[in-house]
Amino acid sequence: MARQTAPKRRRRERGSIDPDDIVAGAFELADEVSIDNLSMPMLGKHLGVGVTSIYWYFRKKDDLLNAMTDRALREYLLAVPLPKSEDWRESLTQYAHTMRKAFLSNPILVDLILIRATLGPRYSELGAKHIEGLVARLVDAGLTFDDGFDTFSALQLHLHGSIVLTRLHEKSKASDPDARTYYEDLAISPESTPILAQAAAHGHTGGAPDDRNFEFGLRCILDHAERLIESRNAEATPRGAA
User: Fold this and answer.
1) Phi, psi (rounded to 5 degrees) for 34
2) CA gap 13, 149 in Å, rounded
């Protein structure tokens, strides 16, 4: 179970805390007790201030979580520049790996951005421009507008889905160490399910959001995009051209 208390700081003087201090303290506390268990009274104790000092800036927990989400986007995700490679496939592969690593290394990002999924106006706009640049690369590479958008949408769904499944499994394990997912509970035996038994022997786990399955899914999406580009280029090449 997640811990419900955090070490107390020395109590601050009245008026000695500001919104940045509160948000920073909220990240510290959430790292110990999780976003779900974070509360304003608990945060006040963690920061060494009365809870009214927090409510002065953030009237409810959702307001605080919105501020945490904005900071998370600014410092962890939007701070990551778009891939510089001119090769569209390498660019999207780098993007997928960078984003997946950033999320999996900091579970609070997943809770705030992917699971809670509430963005402030400024970061909604920046996030849209981020996606715009990546879709533009696909269109520049030779995809139609529709195929370019659908390709990035599929990649983003694959990326975010694998990250969220990993995080939900971690949260289940934190509350119940014996918790198991559907792919861990399959009854596999050489007699009843020989194909699944052979797959397990070769290190496959069906449906698991692990590195192997993520890479295969990513490769399938990019391979399909590459075939679409090749087909479009072939249609554009005049007959008899070298």
Assistant:
1) 85, 160
2) 53
Q: Is 73 within the bounds of a domain?
A: no
Is the distance from CB of 126 to CB of 78 less than 8 angstroms? yes
In a domain, 204, yes or no: no
- Please give the DSSP secondary-structure letter assigned to residue 4: S
- Matching residue, tokens 């008026």: 15
Distance CA 69, CA 241 (A): 54
Give, in order, the Cα–Cα distances in Å from 93 to each of 45, 47, 98, 121, 220: 44, 41, 9, 28, 12
CA distance 16 to 39: 21
Binned at pLDDT 50, 70 and 90, residue 2 comes out as: very low
Number of domains the chain is built from: 2
Full domain range(s) for residue 54: 1-59
Cβ-contact 134, 95 below 8 angstroms: yes
The whole model's pTM is what? 0.81
Alpha-carbon span 80 to 160, nearest angstrom: 17
Whichever domain contains 1, its CATH number is 1.10.10
